[in-house]
Amino acid sequence: MHCPFCRNPDSRVIDSRTSDDGLSIRRRRQCPQCGKRFSTIETSSLNVIKRSGAVEPFSRDKVMAGVRKACQGRPVTDADLALLAQKVEEAVRQTGLSQIDANEIGLATLGPLRELDEVAYLRYASVYQAFESLEDFEAAIADLRADHAGRPGGDVPAEA
Ligand SMILES: [Zn+2]
């Protein structure tokens, strides 16, 4: 990391802090030559391998765009979508891989989307998992119902 003041190629880390979302590290640095201090934000790179074989950087916007269509007409806000994309990124980064398959992003999207809106989830899953028949929908709905039945009734936390 070059010093932005004197271009000295060396710098000393004097403090490191992980950002609130845990996705980047902010480092306070000092240049040993001119003594000036500056900060850097470091994120580990995360690339997506598309079905075509092309590689592109992970983008929360793309996750949101992919889900937005399934959410049409549903009570889902842009803030909801942004949070969902953040959850997807966190899940994907937890794998520790620097390159992941586009398919993995779809998989990582299903969970948070199911929590967000079940109708949107069914729409998304039907496309992503290529539902072919009514049986596929029935199985997915039965799964959601089983999930509802498993939830404690009456004793719901305040935020739910
Ligand atoms: Zn310097």
From TrEMBL:
Question: Which residue ranges traverse the bilayer?
Answer: none
Q: Where are the zinc fingers (unnamed)?
A: 3-34
Entry's Gene Ontology BP terms? negative regulation of DNA-templated transcription
Q: Is this entry keyworded Nucleotide-binding?
A: yes
What does the record note about the cofactor? Answer: Binds 1 zinc ion.
Q: Which UniProt keywords apply?
A: ATP-binding, DNA-binding, Metal-binding, Nucleotide-binding, Repressor, Transcription, Transcription regulation, Zinc, Zinc-finger
- Please list the coiled coil stretches: none
Gene Ontology terms for molecular function: ATP binding; DNA binding; zinc ion binding
Cofactor or coenzyme needed: Zn(2+)
Question: Which is one Pfam family of this protein?
Answer: ATP-cone
What InterPro entries does the record point to? ATP-cone_dom, NrdR-like_N, RNR_NrdR-like
Q: Do you know which PANTHER family this protein is assigned to?
A: TRANSCRIPTIONAL REPRESSOR NRDR (PTHR30455)
Record's function text: Negatively regulates transcription of bacterial ribonucleotide reductase nrd genes and operons by binding to NrdR-boxes.
Q: Which family does it belong to?
A: Belongs to the NrdR family.
**Protein name (Swiss-Prot/TrEMBL):** Transcriptional repressor NrdR
